[in-house]
Amino acid sequence: ISSSGGGSGGAKPSGGPAHAWEDTGAEGTNSWETSVQEDADGRIVITNGAGSIVQAIRNRRRRLEQNDYALKNKRLVRDMIRYVYVVLDASRWMRTKDPVLPPGTRLEMIIGLLHEFVQAYFDENPLSHLGFILVKDGEAEILTPLSSNLKSQKMALQSIGPMIAAEGGSSTRAAGGEFSLQNGLEVAGRSLGHQPRHGSREIVVVTAALSTCDPGSILSETLPRLQQASIRVSCFALAAELHICRKVAEETKGSMGVCLDKAHCREWLRQQTVPPPSFRKDTTQGHGPVCDMIAMGFPTRIVSEVPALIHGDRNKTVMGRTAFNCPRCQSKNAELPADCAVCGLKLVLSPHLARSFHHLFPVMPFSEVAVVREATTTEVKSITSSSVLKAPEKVNSDILVSSDSDDSCCMACLRPFGTTLEIQGAVHNAVVLRFTCPDCESLFCVDCDVFLHESLHNCPGCLAKAT
Known about the structure:
One of its GO terms (biological process) is DNA-templated transcription. The protein is of the alpha/beta class.
């Protein structure tokens, strides 16, 4: 609506948008959507400029440290082998578009994030098993059974899109129908009940429904069976929180989350890749917890000149020349880690055990050491990317310094703090974040801090001093 008269009254000024909600920006995002955010305590705050990036990093670290047991100096018992079912809502609630989760439907968005979750899950838990259950039309069906095969899980996720597209709604019933939480929990619970007790049994529910259509009572029928089988249930709501989901998650010692945006959804799924603290095992005559001895075999990789039959996933045989020989029955298996198709022995490699073991001794969170660095024009021009710099053939030993005596560069990547901000033309007096290890007191940048805690799971400063 314009106060000007005439035919040209509705034209916008050439200087730009008149209101904040009219500004779409260069990338199609409104400025008021990016500047109005939520802090770690749930309060609405206005963020603008480079300070919003720093504040977002601090808020993320604060949320992670709330559930970080390494910060509290606690040694927890975690199960190295996990059996996890992901109950995915495919009802009509998931087939609608969400303005917070553009550009497609909620189901398309969550399938893309589940691809990343599957990859991260098997990277962090190579000895564990994963399965998917699809819930639609008030019924639950197993999409993929529990398996440690990464390829089969990704292929199953890719098949959901064509499956949903082939379905069509009628004039009396919308496509997808209603969501049934009880049926999803019952199907997953019956399958997890047959799994060994030396591993953790978990169910991850991802739903956007605002109601659940169940044949019975979840609190009086399903919940007691889940607690008796030591099954942990975690729920994540894409639309709004359901009280029954929070009740089941709290009673089974799981977690509950509500989606804020796509980044928050990705972060919550990332947290599910870390094994939760295990339930207290039964004790025998007061002699402490009962430990199970799990037999594992280290197979031998063989390459034959002539293709032969090899046991694949889910009792399938394929033709191939490269296989892994079981040390017990000498049968040929296609991939690792896997259970031997003949004798059932768990076949693993030493890196699989190492990647599963690091959850027991996590790296302690680093403490923030913030500095204000005054950037001048000369400094900005003198700092370039580390990939462009060429090292001299011979360096004078008198000018060599170690990262222990120099607090201006990162101990891991050896880049000066704030290099990225200055290359991108950051403002003067920008806040440069540094983090220090509480054990070795080495300094790290933001990128290395995330890499060490999420991927490497080791502190290079502590390892260097240990040797």
